[in-house]
UniProtKB/TrEMBL annotation:
Residues 17-163 form the Thioredoxin domain. It holds the Pfam family AhpC-TSA. One of its GO terms (molecular function) is thioredoxin peroxidase activity. NCBIfam families: PRK00522.1. Transmembrane segments: none annotated. This is Thioredoxin domain-containing protein. Keywords: Antioxidant, Disulfide bond, Oxidoreductase, Peroxidase, Redox-active center. It comes from Enterococcus sulfureus ATCC 49903. InterPro entries: AhpC/TSA, Thioredoxin-like_sf, Thioredoxin_domain, TPX, Tpx_Peroxidase_subfamily. PROSITE patterns: THIOREDOXIN_2.
């Protein structure tokens, strides 16, 4: 698969999980060093917001917007995931006054199952996954232009319909 960055193609190799497939499990740590796995979130819908780098404008917009929207939703797990370190994520959250579940993946282990890495940049492609309570992917968006925001309304509509 290819996406673009300011019109230039960037490869995102591998097969990304599709709608109606069971989402692959992952094992990542939040900012409190608590292990979060997809299997530990079973029983409630999950929104996974994947961002390339928390310290960029569009990633910050995406994270703030989903954090704001997620705070209004009951019965849905919401996660933001990036290759940033725990310290980078904590500094950003502190600066923005935001408390949320952020998963850090500087070792890029999430890519082993989800195949969202852009090797040319060492970052994940901007993506949204909405999973039902059984971990089946009900909505997937891999944003085709890296500098664009995802379709928040669509992802949130799907998530709300799952509650």
């Amino acid at each position: 698969m290819y996406i673009t960055r300011k019109g230039e193609p960037i490869e995102v190799p591998g097969k990304q999980p599709e709608v109606n497939e069971k989402a692959p499990n992952f094992h990542l740590y939040d900012m409190n060093e608590q292990l979060v796995t997809l299997s530990s979130l079973a029983g409630q819908p999950v929104i996974i917001s994947v961002i390339p780098d928390i310290n960029t404008r569009v990633c910050a917009l995406q994270t703030k917007r989903f954090n704001e929207e997620a705070s209004r939703l009951e019965g849905i797990h919401f996660l933001t995931l990036s290759v940033n370190t725990k310290e980078e994520q904590a500094a950003w959250c502190g600066q923005e006054g935001i408390e949320m579940t952020m998963l850090h993946d500087p070792e890029k282990t999430f890519d082993e199952q989800y195949h969202l890495m852009m090797p040319a940049l060492g970052l994940y492609a901007r993506s949204i996954f909405v999973l039902d309570a059984n971990g089946v992917i009900c909505h997937r968006e891999i944003v085709s232009e890296m500098s664009h925001e995802p379709d928040y309304a669509k992802a949130l509509m799907v998530a709300k319909d799952l509650v």
